[in-house]
Amino acid sequence: MTEILQQIINGIAIGGVYVLIALGLTIVFGILGIAHFAHGSVSMFGGYLTFFLVVQQGLPLVLAIAIALVTGMVLGVLIELLAYRPLRNANHINAFIVALGLTMMVEGANLQFFGAEQIVIPTNASRVFDIGGLTLPELRLYVILGAAVLIAAMTIFVEETKTGQAIRAVAENRDAAILMGINVQMIPLVVFAISTALGVAAGVMVGSLFAIAPGVGEGLVVKGFAVLILGGLGSIPGAVVGGIVLGVTEALAAGFISSAYKDVIAFIVMIAVLLLRPQGLMGRA
Amino acid sequence: MGKRLLTCSVMALLMGTGGLAAQETLTIGVADALTGGAAVYGLPQANSVEMAAGEINAAGGISVGDQTYMLDVIVYDDKANPTEATNAVRKLIDRDGVKYLLGFCCSGATGAVASFIGYEDAVMLVGNAAERSITTQGLTNLVRTRPPADYTGAAAGAFVARQGHKRVAVLGALETSFYASYVEAFEEEFAQAGGEVIAHEVFASKDRDMSPQLTKIRAMSPDALLVVGYVEPAAFAYRQATELGMDIPRYGFTSGSEEQFLRVATSEQMEGVWDLRPTELTLQSATEAGLAYHANYTERFGDAPSPSSPYAYDQAWALKHAIEAAGTVDDTEAVAEALRDLQVFPEAVMQYLPVDGKMFDANGQAYTANGAFQWQDGHWVFVEELPSDPAAYSEFLSSLD
Amino acid sequence: MKRGNILLLIVLMLFVALPQLITVKYYLHLSILALIWVIMAQGQNLIQGYTGYVSIVQAGFMGIGAYSSALMSTNLGLPVSATIILAPLVTALFALVAGYPSLRVKGHYFAIVTLAFNMVIFIVLLNLTDLTNGEAGLSGIPKPGNGRGATIDFYDRQVYYYFVLTIAVVMTALAAVIVRSRVGQILLAIRQNEDLVASVGVAAWRYKLFAFVVSAMFAGLAGALYAHYQSFINPEIFSVAQSLDAILAVIIGGSGTLTGPVIGAFFVVFLPEYLRFADSFRLILYGLILVLATIFMPRGIVGLAHDLKTRFGSAR
Prior knowledge:
heterotrimer; A: mainly alpha; 2 strands; C: mainly alpha; two-stranded antiparallel sheet
């Protein structure tokens, strides 16, 4: 029993990271219908930048994260304006190929600026809590709490604020939103800014709890899309549930079935959901 | 006509500069990972070949009869990718007319080149790539300076058994065959001493969260943990083991530097970890040649050399001595034969254990000593040499196909 | 039409004469790889260019073709000429299994699901060590024919060049036949408007699955030819990065055309050679080319050439 509970705890931290990545992907998909494949690499750029500011420039971690978040938001807005907007009315396949191209560019830039060796954002959190035989490292706890706060903030923003309502209106029906006087040119920019900020937060978490290296971002974005398929495309609660389910599934698969094939097992779960419930766990039929 | 004129003027130029013996250039090629994840291994190797070539030239080049050859090095990036490595070597042989190929840090890329090199008029010297099958194919024009991983694994198994452990859990990059062969040899020796490997858990090269595997291992309560894999994920395995409260002895085969580990784990989390590997370049166990190598490399490239980079440095010197012994640069068969006949030379940085008095055995394989290193107060400390038997292993290697 | 035929004949003759024109053998080696990539890109084009579904599993299918042909020839002792024919069939079986769930989602999500399949194939090739020898790969894969020194010696790169050239020409012709058939017309209609196709009572999924499986067979064939040419394969070569190269080849050359993949294949194989000076910027440059080409040149080099021709043609 301890083992199962420990495995669930192991899976929740990485699940929280998946949720943040997936939330960024799902709002972009909901509004623009774009599979923003470069999201993972952009998120890792945020993690790299935080590392750079802390280690090379000696800034305090909190300040470094703040700068990385703002830089990330600007980068997100630029990507929307320069790369996706020109293709607004083109075939959807083109937007995806542009997303692939962007991924290569951002990955290449990360490699150029930050090198090929893995980086770990230094923190001083090395304590470990022991609760009745279950161990929880301090840093994992912060990651879980941080993810929870961001999920709550995001939900409140979308549900309660005026901008949030406008975003939902555009997602529901673009033409009606235009008639209602919503500035539909502005909304995508806001969405990309929020999406990238969530991604950067995830990048910082991955960079401090684990490590950032070439290819990590691409791996995460694939997991993020798997979460979307699990939870339901464009659904915010779906991203939350899907992310946790994926994280815990991987941990249980590695712990009880096969560590070599844990990713394969996670993908099989995704394919099974696709076959049995194409709209996703939380999606509307 | 024009060509003759040119030759004449070149001759005149050489005479004018006072060269008595005719001096020529011998171009050698390096294919190695200069970019990408494996550049950690490949780039220092390429550097050290260039450094060795510079030193050989400064010492008067390679003399064959009354000819003197100065070395010129062409380096191509193979990104540790098999297709890129094939392309790089094809280009070296077909386009640049190179006959001597050095470098080769990584097994996949090296295996791809080894699969066709037997049919080429060329000699291939392999460095850090540890996959055993590279020297079991009976390729007469290939030698390797690094011993295969299982040669070290057997020594490690005996060592861990002597520490009194009975049940060991393995966590590692077991899809990578040289790590798998290390574990296999470890297991065999360990079992002979009455021990048992109770778990074979796997991590992929991109995994950084090993807590699920470690949680599983923790529940089996083994006497010790053996972590086998590249340093980047391995460092996380050590850290997460302490985070899960596992206070059993930890052994490993990672060859990571202190900086690489400290980037991931604190010194306290690393305290007491063992690394059971070829001795390679460690200042504590280094010879005079090793210390000089370290100093020259650091001065020239502004960075300390990686522990495995001398495998490539030694290739260049081995080639020099073999060419001089063979008395030819054109006859690659003769040079390959001379390599097999070579004794360990004074410039060698790694501490080779000769077999039958020769640096490379009949398979073209060289052997170094193996060592047990332990993390103590933030440093890798050389504790003792692991008893290794190169002659017996050499025989075993010859029995494989 | 007639002028097109003459042009086709000239290009074909150029390909036949190529080994005689190349003085440095290294470029013959690259040309063989490029021809293998022509087959790969023609397959990618069927699903991406004509049907409008971006598949990111082609390199995985190439891997299945390569491994199955290599294993059948070494383990079962089948003649290489037979395994090269069998390999695409094995690949087709896998493609059927992968295609059925993948094609339940449209557009971007199809791309993601296929990408997941590429990752699965990669992980399995890596971990099924008993069969695939893991990361170390399979070496000593035999060549077709009767070994070294035979009358037709496939170890001679010129011979292998003509061998691959023949197959590439046949496969390009096959792609042309498919595209011009009724099936091809339906595929094009699916790309234009899938809902419309469905609304007239055509079972679009069958045609999509057909395109997906056929494109996989092209990739499997390319993989088999690759394995027996290089004599060495490992999982690395069949990772997602190579699937992206296949997409690049189609986009750059001109998607939805038959000449496009040919141009694109040579482009992706030869371009890195000429970008060596900018090795560290290669990824950035590749990405930039992809983004700019998609935004400003969505019909690729072929489309560009066409535009130029009509412009100058009308000016005259």
